[in-house]
Amino acid sequence: MLKGVTRLVSRVHKLDPGHFLRLGTQAPQSLAAHLDNQVSFESPRAISCTSENDPAKHEEKHEGQHYNLPLQDMKTIFPHGLPPRYAMQMKTFNEACLMVRKPALELLHYLKNTNFAHPAVRYVLYGEKGTGKTLSLCHIIHFCAKQDWLILHIPDAHLWVKDCRDLLQSSYNKQRFDQPLEASVWLKNFKTTNERFLNQIKIQEKYVWNKRESIEKGSSLGEVVEQGITRVRNATDAVGIVLKELKRQSSLGIFHLLVAVDGVNALWGRTTLKREDKSPIAAEELALIHNLRKMVKNDWNGGAIVMTLSQTGSLFKPRKAYLPQELLGKEGFDALDPFIPILVGNYNPKEFESCIQYYLENSWLQHEKAHTEEGKKELLFLSNGNPGQLERLCAYL
Amino acid sequence: MAAPLVKAVLGSSDLTLSVRSAVLRFPGFTQVRWSRYSPEFRDPQIDKDYHRKPWAELTEEEKFERELRKTQPIKAARSANTSSVFEDPVISKFTNMMMKGGNKVLARSLMTQTLEAVKRKQFKKFHAASSEEQATIERNPYTIFHQALKNCEPVIGLAPILKGGRFYQVPVPLSDRRRRFLAMKWMITECREKKHRRTLMPEKLSQELLQAFHNQGPVVKRKHDMHKMAEANRALAHYRWW
């Protein structure tokens, strides 16, 4: 309590008197954060933050407001998958706050009303660069994690189709290629997220790793994951087994499965990987990609598939491309058809104001002119309401 | 041959090349940077508030000045000078000095990354400190930058004076602009030369700026060395004639 007051006092000295006169509110700004969000006067905390931290209860009225994610949850739910600049911001502010926006609210509404008997519905988040597709995906993942779904999160599919140092010929199928490093890293993160499910799910088939090692029917999925992490050569096959088993067993109803893929256009694009004789490798010749394509097909039920298109990491796609047809190509679009497209756009004026208020609350905007109306108008003009651009601008102001 | 030469001398005042300014800044120095503008060209007024002031609020002198500007030709504004509220002439000058080969995009991005790095470091320190210390920690990267450069400015400089066949380092007073230039130059040279091959410029520059802000570090040390040399050579001060 005392610390809050002293922090408030130091903040009071930082803000100029004109700021207070304009707001018309005095001391209880940070104290209001602890109170319910039904404050009658328009304090900046009421515009920018809400105390409703459960994604299941987010409604239209929370649109534009930031909610707090506990840092401990962030470590378990998101060992990978946060955008790098957001991770830096989390480290700097010592807190993780996410804005509730319309596309995420729409998706939450659909997910709450999913019929688990029907085949899994595919949702595709698309939009221009920097509009917040990955963070909307993170919002959805947080919601599903809170609802105790099993999260299958591929942080960036583009990382699997480029810059791979060691490609092995797959032992399972001679035509395909293994990527041991990427697969083992993913398995480690998968284990961190879904620790509690790994012992409950039992595999329903016997798998033989090599002449000496095999895994029996009825052993837990945790053992498969362990085998993949310790024996890096078999990591890709372990990933394949995990995906196959989860797809088979999600219809049984023991758990709900969320498949979240960021940068799904990598699955149907070109790769920059080459064989020893310098001939290019197509995407389907990579075992990880092949298995993921099967996962993203809607021939299973008991969950949902949420995907994001991304031009940023993509290969051989023009910078301005953001529509599903442009990024997925004919093959990808036909494979994903039918899907529900959700457009993620720039900030509207209310969201922009909320974002600026959030930065001001955390004293991130240190430049004196950034507090003024002129400064805000200029930031709006320079960023055009694009969340990514705004974040980069405010970083050095 | 004399007649054409005289004509050339008389004809020079009609050319747009500016004449050497009547007041020489230093007896030892000649003006090297010529301007394509002749002397009657006025500098552009970039400040938005100057132009937004309504006519009724202006004083008599300001009204006269406005009317006068309508008759005078004005130079074109530089593309790097904006009417943005966030514009800072010191930062612009530093960015220009960091620029290599005309790559302003790179220089500006390095500058913004440096300011961001300074801010993040200060925030980290802020969150780690106790509440009494938090009031003393400065988080504004612009104040840190300005204060650091002010701390690096030398008060007195040295000039090489030729006397009796030998060059002596003589202590001389420095003008404001020379001091600012030297502070920026030392900062940039220090960061370019004394850094590991793998560290990036924003990282090194932010480190040096923070050290200079607290009056420590190699750039402030260089300033002190300059002062000590000037103090040691103070007997030679009478060699200066200006």
Automatic annotation (TrEMBL), chain A:
Any one GO MF annotation of this record: structural constituent of ribosome
Keyword Ribonucleoprotein: yes
InterPro entries on file: P-loop_NTPase (IPR027417), Ribosomal_mS29 (IPR019368), Ribosomal_mS29_met (IPR008092)
Subcellular location: Mitochondrion
Main subcellular location of this protein, as a coarse class: mitochondrion
Leader sequence residues: none
GO cellular component, one term: mitochondrial small ribosomal subunit
GO biological process annotation, one example: apoptotic process
Keywords: Mitochondrion, Ribonucleoprotein, Ribosomal protein, Transit peptide
A Pfam family matched in the record: DAP3
Family: Belongs to the mitochondrion-specific ribosomal protein mS29 family.
Name of the protein: Small ribosomal subunit protein mS29
Organism lineage string: Eukaryota, Metazoa, Chordata, Craniata, Vertebrata
From TrEMBL, chain B:
Small ribosomal subunit protein uS7 domain location: 76-234
CDD domains: uS7_Mitochondria_Mammalian
Keywords, alphabetical: Mitochondrion, Ribonucleoprotein, Ribosomal protein, Transit peptide
Compartments it resides in: Mitochondrion
Pfam annotation, one family: Ribosomal_S7
Main localization, broad class: mitochondrion
Gene Ontology BP annotations: translation
GO annotation, cellular component aspect: mitochondrial inner membrane; mitochondrial small ribosomal subunit
Family, similarity comment: Belongs to the universal ribosomal protein uS7 family.
Protein name: Small ribosomal subunit protein uS7m
Native species: Myotis myotis (Greater mouse-eared bat)
